[in-house]
Design brief:
With 91 residues, this protein is mainly alpha-helical. It contains 4 helices and no strands. It has helices at residues 3-19, 21-26, 30-58, 63-87. It is elongated, with a radius of gyration of 14 Å. It starts with a helix and ends with a helix.
Length: 91
């Protein structure tokens, strides 16, 4: 497997596991929680693939720096989403 593909998958899974806890805080229904976990995994993998591909296409930084930047962006995105969902949770 190529280093770029390994980095995309690793960053996607790291961002997923870093943000997975928010589904347990917000949703109490196990079916909704399982669905959100599956959707969250798919979104994190797709976003990590797209962001790293764009950063590699621009080719300013090396792969390690691109992976770290992608992880920071995805984690910040999920923290912001978590805060938004917790503030607007009506259950």
């Amino acid at each position: 497997m190529e280093d770029g593909t390994k980095a995309k998958l690793t960053i996607g899974f790291l961002a997923f596991f870093a943000s997975m806890w928010m589904t347990f805080l917000i949703y109490e229904n196990p079916l909704i929680t399982a669905g959100m976990i599956i959707v969250l995994l798919a979104v994190m993998l797709v976003l990590s693939y797209v962001i790293i591909t764009i950063l590699e296409w621009i080719s300013i930084f090396d792969l390690k720096t691109n992976a770290i930047l992608t992880l920071v962006v995805l984690t910040t995105f999920m923290i912001t989403l978590t805060v938004y969902l917790l503030q607007n949770n009506t259950t």
